Amino acid sequence: MATDYYAVLGVRRDAGQDEIKKAFRRLARELHPDVNPDPKTQERFKEINAAYEVLSDPQKRQVYDLGGDPLSPNGGGAGGFGAGAAGFGFSDIMDAFFGAATGQRGPRSRTRRGQDAMIRLEITLEEAAFGTTKELQVDTAVTCTTCSGEGAAPGTSAQTCDMCRGKGEVSQVTRSFLGQVMTSRPCPQCQGFGTVVPTPCPECAGDGRVRARRTLTVKIPAGVDNGTRIQLAGEGEVGPGGGPAGDLYVEIAETSHPTFQRRGDDLHCTVTIPMTAAALGTQVPLQTLDGLEEVDIRPGTQSGQSIPLHGRGITHLRGGGRGDLIVHVEVQTPTKLDPEQEELLRRLAMLRGEERPSGQFAPGQQGLFSRLKDAFNGR
Ligand SMILES: [Zn+2]
Ligand SMILES: [Zn+2]
């Protein structure tokens, strides 16, 4: 523990927060690098910032008073506050005090992270149900091989900008409540990079990137749905100046199926059967996602009744297991009867005492549930 933070700010050990803040403001005004750029003063400026960071934070101040160093990366010592307690750093104070404009010093890097990219991928219902592996053609920016992402033509290199001498910003003296203050703005000649590229790479026009088509293999997990996004880390565009690549998102679009409609992880379809089959019961073949299966229509099945085939739906994306396949039954009444058929039906009606049925009236429109209930009650 070398630095006496109280001495740095010129305050007593029992100084209140107001006093500390006042002392810091006064010194910061004097020693700010925009006002006073010589290296020694800048060292002092860092010191007062460190002192203020510690003494303005009651927790850190306590650590310091107990003999620890709250700014040390090795932890707080006596106070027991680790590096985690050092919640904000040097530049945060600068931002808070002088505004974000002076927060970042020096030229900005030409290297930046690339953008994320997204492509749509159409898959079938079967592929969504069981998962699949797809080959994708992706058109994104990749690092230019001619200049290795540097942006300068082969045999040339970026030069230090002569307008800002490599600092990336140009300064201007203005008067403000802090007194005479130098404000900075990005250098117009180099756009703040601090360097200029006199001869840009002919392949990428100085961007360091070119567009290229790649083939990617993507594993699509079982259970994806319309709009599901699969993240492929680092497969997006590479950044300017040879920066790291962004991510690629594959958005799933499910094509419609001729037989099944998906609702969540359940599948729905309708089967139309003749009246006689509904009365007598039958089996109808259905091509499910798992192959050909017989749907069992029990004798006395009503129109609107549904038959669930458990576990024949879509795989749950999380947790495994599968949804159901639900077959909705629609009973068709015959419309064209030849004389023999009509005779048979009349005979059947007579046998059942249904030649002049009174009908069962109920208020409103009876839905599927009441029909199901009726079926249960044997009516
Ligand atoms: Zn290039
Ligand atoms: Zn410049």
What does this entry look like structurally?
The protein is α+β, with helices and mostly antiparallel strands and 379 residues long. It has 9 helices and 15 strands. The strands form 6 sheets. A 4-stranded mixed β-sheet has the order 10-11-15-14. It has a 3-stranded mixed β-sheet with strand order 1-9-8. Strands 2-7 form a two-stranded antiparallel sheet. The chain binds zinc ion (ZN) (2 copies). Residues 161, 163-164, 187, 189-190, 194 line the site of one zinc ion. It is found in: Cytoplasm.
For the largest beta-sheet, the strand count, sense and barrel status come to:
4 strands, mixed
Quaternary state of the chains: single chain
Number of strands: 15
Describe the global form. elongated
Which residues form runs of ≥5 with pLDDT under 50? 74-103
Secondary structure class reads alpha+beta
Strand order of the largest sheet: 10-11-15-14
Q: Helix share of residues?
A: 10-25%
Output mean pLDDT.
84
- Distinct bound molecules: zinc ion
What pattern of helices and strands is seen along the backbone? HHHHHEHEEEEEEEEEEHEEEEHH
Strand percentage lies at 25-35%
What is the tally of helical segments?
9
Quote the distance from N terminus to C terminus: 92 Å
Radius of gyration over C-alpha positions, nearest whole angstrom: 38 Å
Write the layout of secondary structure elements.
Elements: H1 5-9, H2 17-31, H3 39-55, H4 58-65, H5 90-98, E1 117-123, H6 125-130, E2 132-143, E3 159-160, E4 169-176, E5 179-186, E6 195-196, E7 209-220, E8 229-232, E9 248-254, E10 261-263, E11 266-274, H7 275-280, E12 282-288, E13 291-297, E14 306-309, E15 325-332, H8 339-351, H9 368-377
Parallel strand pairs: 1-9, 11-15
Antiparallel strand pairs: 2-7, 3-6, 4-5, 8-9, 10-11, 12-13, 14-15
The structure holds zinc ion (2 copies).
One zinc ion binds at residues 161, 163-164, 187, 189-190, 194.
